[in-house]
Amino acid sequence: MREAMLTLAGLFLLAHVFLAAGVLPAERPSIPCDENGAVPASQAAFQHISAQHHHGYKYKPSDFPSSQDDLACEFHLELDLEETTCHVVNPKPVEECVVRETHETKVQSNCNVTLTVVEGKPTVKKYSCSSDPASAEELQKICPDCPSLLPLHYPAGLDSIKSALKKFHEESNETSNFKLLEVGRLSTQHMLTGQSYLAEFAIVQTDCRSHVICVLGRGKAQYGFCKSTVLGNDEVSVDCEIYDAQVRTLHHCRGQVKIPPSIHPICPHPIRHMPPTPADN
C-alpha cells in the first residue's frame, strides 16, 4: 500500500464553496483512484458525516490530511472539524455558520474515515470521531471571567431552561405550544447578582397542552433555538428563533464512544439507534 500524505484544507474549502454557490455541476464528478481523488473524497466524507449528524451543533472543516490505497481504491481520511454556533435544527447552510470562539469553549472533532470508490462513486465504509471541548485551563488563561461549561444534565441549569421556556410562552406571539427538544449547552458564571446560569436549547412545536408530552404527527413541525440567562436574583431573559416547519429525526448515540458530559459529540457510523430514556422526553 502506497500512502501519500496530503494537506487538503485549502483545496477542500474552495471546492466546498463552489458547490454551495452552484458552480460545480449538479451531478458529482467521478472520483479518481489516485492522489487527485483526495479532495473530492474528503468532500464526500464531510457531506456524509454532516448528513448523519442529527443532534447538537453543526460542524465546519478545518484540515483534511489523507492517504490512499491504490490497490483497493480506498481512501483513509482524517477530518478535523470545528463546532459552529448553528444548532442542527437551524436551516442556515453550514457555510454561513460561525465557528465557536475559544472564549466560548471551542469544540473540535477529529474524524477517521474509510471511504471506497467503485466506478467513480464514493461509499463511506466507516468513520469514528473524537469530540472534545477546549480545556478549562486553556479558557482560564485567555478569559478567567468567562462562563464555564456544565454537564448537559446539571439540575440548576435544567431548572433555568424550565424558567426560560415558561417566560417564552408567556411573552411570545406564537400560537403553538413548544416543548424542550434538546439541551445544547449549559454554562455558569458568577455575577454581581450571584451565580447565574446560561443555556442554549432547541425546542419543537407540539399539538398538545403543556401537561401532556407529545410532538406533532409524522408531518412537519416548527423548530426553534433559544438562548437564556437566569441571574442569581432569578431574573430571566430568553431569546428564541423560530424556523419554518421541517421534518427532522434526532438520533442519540450512547455507549459507543466516550461522550464528554458537557457537549454533543459526532456519533460513530453505523449508528446503533437506541430507545429514548425518560430524560429525553
Order of helices and strands: HHEEEEEHEHEEEE
Under CATH, the topology of the largest domain can be stated as: Nuclear Transport Factor 2, Chain: A
Question: Helical segment tally?
Answer: 4
What is the strand content?
25-35%
- Can you tell me the CATH class of the largest domain? Alpha Beta
Count of distinct strands:
10
User: Structurally, how many domains make up the residues?
Assistant: 2
Architecture of the largest domain in CATH? Roll
* Largest sheet properties: 5 strands, antiparallel
Q: Distance between termini? A: 49 Å
Structural class: alpha+beta
Report low-confidence residues grouped into runs of 5 or more: 1-26, 271-281
Please, what is the average pLDDT?
80
Give the CA-based shape: globular
Describe this entry's structure for a reader.
With 281 residues, the protein is of the alpha+beta class. The chain has helices at residues 9-21, 38-52, 136-142, 155-171; strands at residues 57-63, 66-69, 74-87, 107-118, 121-133, 148-149, 177-191, 194-206, 223-230, 236-242. It is 19% helix and 34% strand. Strands 1, 2, 3, 4 and 5 form a 5-stranded antiparallel sheet that branches. A 5-stranded antiparallel sheet has the order 6-7-8-9-10, with helices on one face. A hairpin with a 2-residue loop joins strand 7 (177-191) and strand 8 (194-206). Helix 1 packs across helix 2. The chain is globular and about 65 Å long. One of its GO terms (cellular component) is blood microparticle. Residues 1-22 form the signal peptide. This is Alpha-2-HS-glycoprotein.
